[in-house]
């Protein structure tokens, strides 16, 4: 009886919310989607359309796996556009025109979530008017993840750098240590940053907006629906090649193993055995979360082989040379393509093996631990070394 009451209350609340939304759309109007090319006052093409091809990938032992199939996609062109008197929220990626319509393409979703919603949020929220140029680089919190910050967020910064438009201010996340360090290395002073860790609404005289990397598709893993990266542009690491690598010291090449001992999930269950084996074959064990961005860049720039379990640490491949060999270890069911796609875009030699997941009860695939068979791993390491 109690569960029935809860269900009725839930239905009633849902109906009331629906009525409220309809009323707000009637009072304030609803957002129409407007194409960026139609709404922009100025635009510049930075990179033209290109093709991305992912080959079929067998594991280090020559075995096929269903999530590593061949495919090809078209990468869209990339622009930087300027919108006069446009609006945006500092903690969200969407952009609204001076007439309070939402720009269709500026979203990490397949369909912009504001289309058809009430405009009340723009009419009732106090806003700050900025009478100068502002670059909008927010990704609605995605940039709080190290890998996404290095890839999607900094790609937008690079598009901006390649354009003719030079902002007075940047809306970009800069409250985490790696964000502060990276922006510092790129010469973006904190005085010119409007932080994304707030919910402020602003209207800028000139809002400068680079294109997004919107490159995901759904993939089902063990009954769960996950986001799977499909492509990256081939210029993706040029920002680091041009602005960061010249600042680091290049010495002898090293084999490195990236530890996940301090990670909250996706740990190696027989970690000591695994690390000892890598050390036996001349690998240095590093925990990149303990290092500064510049030190990590130097480590990867001096790597000949990078090995580890799938995770954001592989995003540091941005700093590595194309001759670097990548060896990635997956849990049994979680086969995220972030590293594979970046390795393909960079032209790295890429190898992988799949371990075992012994406990999947009530565990999301993304959080699976991995057990690695030592005999198989030793065979894999020997194969990797033969490619060096």
Would you give an account of this structure?
The chain has 388 residues and is α/β, with parallel strands linked by helices. It has 2 domains: 27-46 and 77-210, no CATH class; 217-387, Rossmann fold (3-Layer(aba) Sandwich), CATH 3.40.50. The protein is built from 10 helices and 18 strands. The strands form 5 sheets. Strands 2, 5, 6, 8, 9, 10 and 11 form a 7-stranded mixed beta sheet that branches. A 5-stranded parallel beta sheet has the order 15-14-16-17-18, with helices on both faces. β14, α7 and β15 form a beta-alpha-beta unit. α7 packs parallel to α10 (374-387). The chain starts with a helix and ends with a helix.
What's the short story on this structure?
By secondary structure, this protein is of the alpha/beta class.
> What structural class results from the helix and strand content?
alpha/beta
**Beta-strand residue fraction:** 25-35%
Count of helical regions: 10
Helical content class: 25-40%
**Gyration radius, rounded:** 23 Å
Q: Got a strand count?
A: 18
Instruction: Quickly count the domains.
Output: 2
Oligomeric state: single chain
CATH class of the largest domain: Alpha Beta
Q: What distance lies between the first and last C-alpha atoms, to the nearest angstrom?
A: 68 Å
